[in-house]
């Protein structure tokens, strides 16, 4: 318990802004006075401990706190770190009453602080990093999971056209686009030869599942990417929309179910913890969306391949000197194990 709470504290909270992430605070404040409704300084800037991709800052004023997400400084991959897309999706979802932070303003002018950024509300609440929820009583754990799963299901019930996001993603098979995207990301960041990745790059595009529906896809829907109410087992804000697009909701759904085979829940005594089983989690989602659970092996192979692409991207940023977090090295080391696990699921799905 104590170790898990320490882990929550290690990743949560703020610290002084690292030297390499410093910004011109006076220019930022001048911009906020002009573009953020109700802004009143003076401004104090801190940096959040979590997050390896887009550096994230806490902006405090005497009356209100804000969060700023910005692109990293330096050389970036073409499609990565699209803070303008993050801003657009949370603004659209917020209008529907979906639990996201309030979107205040977007700045695409690099001249203000050196990179594009946006400002959103600071949502107070709890972030859980350990999926066994050791800090929570047993009766709360199942409710926390239920809220997490039902929130994802609710996201997938929105008609993108009806909420102004008709052009938020490209047409065609989502998994085909994603396999292509993460293959390119992997190649652009490649630091070593991994045989399993080469096999997956050949196999995945040949075996794509048929897409049945199109929805908003979060792209990284996991427990530590949401804020829960300070006392209630309820999601108040889903965070980190960097990978969101229009696509196949099966991507988010199967990524969610993978959490039961990853470190944390894998091997845990779910009944004793009062945490839903993978089958129970799937049923909660299917009850809300009216869908059926697919064969998971292809999807798990895809999700692990995508994670390998993400961690390889982190390795590439370490190489290029733009990684935003001291834990980046730890993440980069996961690429080979993820690739091997992905190929094992591919084999279960029929790959040879």
Word description of this protein:
This protein is an alpha+beta fold and 352 residues long. The protein folds into 2 domains: 105 residues, 2-Layer Sandwich (Phosphorylase Kinase, domain 1), CATH 3.30.200.20; 211 residues, Aminoglycoside 3'-phosphotransferase, Chain: A, domain 2. Helices cover 41% and strands 12% of the residues. It contains 12 helices and 10 strands. The strands form 3 sheets. It has a 6-stranded antiparallel sheet with strand order 1-2-3-4-6-5, with helices on both faces. Strand 8 and strand 9 form a beta hairpin. Helix 4 crosses helix 9 and helix 5 runs parallel beside helix 10. The protein starts with a helix and ends with a helix. The N terminus is likely disordered.
Quick overview:
The chain is α+β, with helices and mostly antiparallel strands and 352 residues long. The chain has twelve helices and ten strands.
**CATH superfamily heading of the largest domain:** Aminoglycoside phosphotransferase (APH), C-terminal lobe
Number of domains: 2
Oligomer classification = single chain
CATH architecture of the largest domain: Alpha-Beta Complex
Q: How are the strands ordered across the major sheet?
A: 1-2-3-4-6-5
Helix content: 40-55%
**How would the global form be characterised?**
globular
Q: Can you count the helices? A: 12
Q: Could you tell me the mean pLDDT?
A: 91
| H and E order | HEHEEEHEEHHHEEEEHHHHHH
Strand content: 5-15%
Distance between the termini: 43 Å
- Report the strand count: 10
CATH fold annotation of the largest domain: Aminoglycoside 3'-phosphotransferase, Chain: A, domain 2
């Amino acid at each position: 318990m104590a170790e898990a709470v320490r882990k929550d504290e290690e990743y949560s909270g703020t610290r002084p802004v690292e030297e390499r992430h410093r910004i011109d605070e006076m220019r930022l404040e001048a911009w906020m006075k002009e573009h953020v409704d109700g802004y009143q300084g003076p401004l104090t800037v801190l940096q959040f401990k979590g997050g390896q991709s887009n550096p994230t800052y806490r902006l405090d004023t005497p009356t209100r706190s804000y969060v700023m997400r910005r692109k990293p400084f330096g050389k970036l991959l073409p499609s990565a770190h699209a803070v303008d897309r993050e801003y657009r999706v949370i603004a659209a979802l917020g209008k529907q009453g979906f639990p996201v932070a309030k979107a205040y303003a977007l700045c695409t002018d690099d001249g203000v602080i050196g990179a594009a950024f946006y400002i959103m509300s600071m949502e107070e609440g709890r972030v859980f990093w350990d999926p066994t929820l050791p800090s929570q009583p047993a009766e709360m754990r199942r409710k926390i999971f239920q809220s997490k799963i039902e929130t994802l299901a609710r996201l997938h019930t929105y008609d993108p056209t009806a909420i102004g996001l008709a052009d938020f993603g490209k047409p065609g098979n989502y998994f085909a686009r994603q396999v292509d995207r993460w293959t390119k990301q992997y190649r652009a960041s490649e630091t070593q030869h991994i045989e399993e990745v080469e096999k997956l790059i050949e196999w995945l595009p040949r075996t794509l599942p048929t897409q049945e529906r199109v929805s908003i896809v979060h792209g990284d829907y996991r427990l530590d990417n949401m804020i829960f109410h300070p006392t209630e087992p309820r999601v108040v804000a889903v965070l980190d929309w960097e990978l969101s697009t229009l696509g196949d909701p099966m991507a988010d759904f199967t990524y969610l179910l993978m959490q039961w085979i990853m470190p944390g829940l894998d091997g845990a005594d779910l009944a004793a913890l009062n945490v839903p089983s993978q089958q129970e989690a799937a049923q909660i989602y299917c009850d809300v969306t009216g869908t059926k659970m697919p064969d998971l092996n292809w999807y798990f192979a895809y999700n692990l391949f995508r994670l390998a692409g993400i961690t390889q991207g982190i390795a590439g940023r370490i190489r290029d000197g733009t990684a935003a977090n001291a834990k980046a090295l730890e993440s980069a080391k996961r690429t080979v194990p993820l690739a091997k696990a992905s190929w094992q699921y591919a084999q279960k799905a029929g790959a040879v």
